[in-house]
Write a structure and sequence with these properties.
19% of the residues lie in helices and 37% in strands. The chain has five helices and 17 strands.
Length: 271
């Protein structure tokens, strides 16, 4: 299936009734927007005895990720529609995540509590997470994956954001690389965000990045705990409650398809 949340796009493979997990090479081939299908992340759905389903996430470079907020919302919407339920629970590497139909075409997922200790994010050493020793004074947050959030005066016109994100993804303070967000406080309840996703690049939206930026802004005292996050693809709502960080927004199920066996067997097609 091809799905997206505000332009943050996914290929989703349903393995609940059988089928093989894609390896890293096949993930990269599917991710190729000219020679494959193209996506920001790939997710697989598996049967699970203790939850409605188990999800596994891959980045476009073939690496894995413990969390992907918008993909989780897209799959939650698919499973909610399939079952006719109003709520369900999904298992990810980050833990059990509750999801619900919020009405009006909006799907809401509890992304769990943010990770706020340096070893679990993880960072390379013990530092002040609210003021990292990096030019630009960013904040470190974990949402099942690592994040570095910079607060700036004008996110939309931030110079050479692609180069900035690529450099900071590989910062030595983050041994597993990091997602990079440039955030502008538009109002006490609104952030504008530009996003560089680890293993992917610039994306139109990201659920985990939006959650991380909202948590960072609230911890800095720049906003409250409930904010609108404006991204290139639209608008998400983040609500950091006692039980976790809730992420809400629209989703789209674009198409269903089948990967041809001869294409899978053909191996890499890029010269």
């Amino acid at each position: 299936m091809k799905m997206h949340g505000l332009g943050n796009d996914f290929v989703v493979i349903d393995l609940r009734h059988g089928g093989a997990m894609p390896d890293a090479d096949l993930v990269r081939r599917i991710a190729d927007r000219q020679f494959g299908i193209g996506f920001d992340q790939l997710a697989t759905i598996h049967a699970d005895d203790g939850a409605d389903a188990k999800l596994t996430f891959f980045n476009a470079d073939g690496s894995t990720s413990a969390a992907c907020g918008n993909a989780t919302r897209c799959i939650a919407r698919y499973l909610l529609d399939e079952s006719g339920s109003a709520a369900l629970v999904l298992r990810t590497e980050h833990g059990l995540l509750a999801a619900e139909d919020a009405g009006g075409g909006i799907t809401r997922v509890n992304m769990g509590q943010p990770v706020l200790d340096w070893q679990s994010i993880p960072l390379a050493r013990d530092v002040d997470l609210l003021h990292l020793p990096i030019d630009g004074d960013p904040v470190a947050t974990g949402m099942g994956n690592p994040h570095m959030t910079f607060f700036v005066d004008d996110a939309a016109n931030f110079p050479d954001f692609e180069g900035f994100g690529a450099r900071h993804e590989l910062h030595p303070l983050y041994p597993q690389r990091t997602n990079v967000e440039v955030a502008q406080v538009v109002a006490p309840d609104t952030l504008r965000l530009r996003i560089w996703e680890r293993g992917v690049g610039v994306t139109l939206a990201s659920g985990s990045c939006s959650c991380a930026a909202a948590v960072a802004a609230a911890r800095r005292g720049l906003t409250g705990r409930r904010v609108r996050v404006l991204v290139a693809g639209g608008e998400l709502e983040i609500d950091w409650r006692e039980d976790g960080v809730w992420l809400a927004g629209p989703t789209a199920h674009v198409a269903d398809g089948v990967l041809r066996a001869d294409w899978i067997a053909s191996g890499s097609e890029r010269p």
